[in-house]
Design a protein that fits this description.
With 247 residues, the chain is an alpha+beta fold. It folds into two domains: 136 residues, Roll (Diaminopimelate Epimerase, Chain A, domain 1), CATH 3.10.310.10; 96 residues, Diaminopimelate Epimerase, Chain A, domain 1 (Roll). It is built from four helices and 15 strands. Strands 1, 2, 3, 4, 5, 6, 7 and 8 form an eight-stranded mixed sheet that branches. The chain has a five-stranded mixed sheet with strand order 9-10-11-14-15, with helices on one face. 31% of the residues are buried.
Length: 247
């Protein structure tokens, strides 16, 4: 059997979210930054994204972290992120999982009970600490680029709902619309997952059509994710659901 390219991947999950890490098979991607490497890949190798993300090798909700060589002096490796619909600037869960895989497979040498791992992403350098318990990583701490509110107190017209108040914020380089569930006629419950996804996608489409979001660095950009949440209860718990990708 003839193969033009052999790719090595490792599947993992972070907090129950199934993901995949592409560890080898691409060679050295051209580019001085992770953004340049991702764009080179997108322009020339995007068929690998669809081949890995979509069935039969993937599924509609699969997110893949692509490991690259580092672009800053102290980093261990770089990451960019792709999913069936395109690419993300970064992903917290994917970075936690990639750091865990790197330690547990020996790609990064473990240093006692706590191992610092520096990771380059499009959003900037991520400082992580992987903590070891017996024979595996027990937790990973991240220090990322600052999060901030970009457009507070906005109102958009959402199809099937009406006027919806929301805020637009930037976190780990990605742009979020943040909306209370009650404004969508919902509560955050597992049995309402499909309806939350549908209305979250409708919110994302409305924000992209009606608001202009400018982020320092990338400039004008679109909202990529919608965080549907309830206000904290007496114990400080705020149920929430993140709508991303196809919903």
């Amino acid at each position: 059997m003839r193969s033009d390219r052999v790719l090595q991947t490792i599947d993992f999950h972070t907090a129950g979210i199934g993901m995949r890490l592409l560890t080898s098979g691409l060679g050295r991607l051209p580019g001085r930054t992770i953004g340049e490497k991702r764009r080179w890949f997108q322009e020339r190798l995007d068929h690998l994204r669809t081949g890995l993300c979509l069935e039969p090798r993937g599924h509609r909700s699969l997110l893949i972290a692509v490991m690259t060589e580092p672009v800053t002096p102290d980093a261990h490796f770089g990451l960019f992120f792709m999913y069936p619909g395109g690419y993300y600037v970064s992903c917290g869960e994917g970075t936690i999982g990639a750091a865990t895989v790197a330690i547990e497979t020996g790609m990064v040498e473990r240093q006692g009970a706590e191992t610092p791992i520096v990771i380059d992403t499009e959003a900037g350098v991520v400082q992580t600490i992987a903590r070891w318990d017996k024979d595996r990583v027990s937790e990973v701490t991240l220090r990322w680029t600052p999060s901030f509110v970009s457009l507070p107190g906005q109102v958009v017209e959402v199809e099937g709902v009406g006027e919806v108040p929301l805020d637009v914020a930037v976190g780990v380089g990605n742009v979020f619309a943040i909306v209370e569930a009650r404004h969508l006629g919902l509560s955050v419950r597992r049995e309402l997952a499909k309806r939350i996804a549908q209305r979250g996608v409708a919110v994302r489409e409305a924000v992209s059509a009606q608001l202009q979001v400018d982020v320092p660095g990338p400039g004008k950009t679109n909202v990529e994710m919608v965080l549907v949440h309830e206000l904290p209860d007496a114990d400080g718990v705020s149920p929430n659901a993140l709508v991303w990708g196809p919903g």
